[in-house]
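Fold sample X.
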Amino acid sequence: MLKMAVLLSGSGRTLDNFHSRIKDGSLAGEIQVVISNVENVLGLSKAENYGYPSYCCVDNDQINETLERFDIDIICLAGYLKLYTPPVGLKRSVINIHPSLIPSFCGDGFYGNVVHRAVKSRGCTVSGCTVHFADDKYDEGPIILQKCVEIGYDDDIATIASTVFAVECEAFPEAINRVDEKGVGFFWERVSG
């Protein structure tokens, strides 16, 4: 069972998913703390309602000072929209989800509907999501899990986004369970470079 910190910047839809799956026993994790870099977002209100300690911390230093108060195994970036630098002891323990199949449509500036718009503009017939460990560059850490979805020729951006988010709700918990089962080191050791 992994002790989780959840970092978010918005509505907390992924937090909802984590909470639901923890309650039904399908996610091998326990949320210790929820942190947002944006004040008064819905995700913080949801965290409070779920009974999780929740904080607004505007930068890495504040986040890391707050994390020191908790026993954390992994940090999950759940719609956290800044490049995050963890404390040294958790450097390889930050997990992110990206709304495309990395290495396509990723990197600095590619998030949310920007990604889905690029997928649509390119005429892709598949998209999906990638759960990966985060490092000091956007979307370059070791991949834990990817899931693919079919994109219809006439799908608009909102349809692509909702299709991908539905598979994200499956992929992120499954990836956390794999990390719990195999350990963080397994994923870093299986990639070169």
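Fold sample Y, listed below.
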Amino acid sequence: MQYLNHLIEHYGYFGIIIALVGGIIGLPIPDEVLLTYVGYNVFQGKMSYLPSLLSAFAGACGGISLSYFLGIKLGLPFLKRFGPKLHITEERVDRTKRLFVKFGPFLLVIGFFVPGVRHITAYLAGINSYTYRKFALFAYIGAMIWCFSFITLGRVLGENWIMVETYLSKYSLYLILALLLGSAIFYTYWKRKKVLRNVS
């Protein structure tokens, strides 16, 4: 926790941007903990809410966009070869790739909330030749929701912000399953509605 304090004190809003760019491309940075800690600093009056949110959003968009362009340029073999060095296992890559085929756009949105998945979804969007417009539409919406959720949570919890880390590690599996189930239901409903609209 000391390094988070050092990051905020010495680099302020710019530190948030750099940390999130690094965290999203795969560096071992606890992104949710960082965002919640930023919210705690807002609670303490050390940072302002809107600049914090905009800085986090810029960092998240920067990191996810960099991953997307790396996917276009370097492809899947690079991810499988060098992913383990960034704590991205081949098993996780294959599992996310299968999910991406079914739920690509929605995975770009909810992937931010699943540790290990957000590092891969944008890369897979690049590999699967998503247009930048399609990628940005879903990924940037996800980035805004993610940043807003955790910074606001840290601000609301105040002194108890550290509870987020405990609950994340304890209930992350249930969160992943709930998000995937919700996405599957929404995707099925959206697909059926689209088919019915085309028929009529």
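Sample Y note: Helices lie at 2-25, 31-44, 49-82, 90-110, 118-127, 132-157, 163-199.
Also: Residues 163-199 form the longest helix (37 residues).
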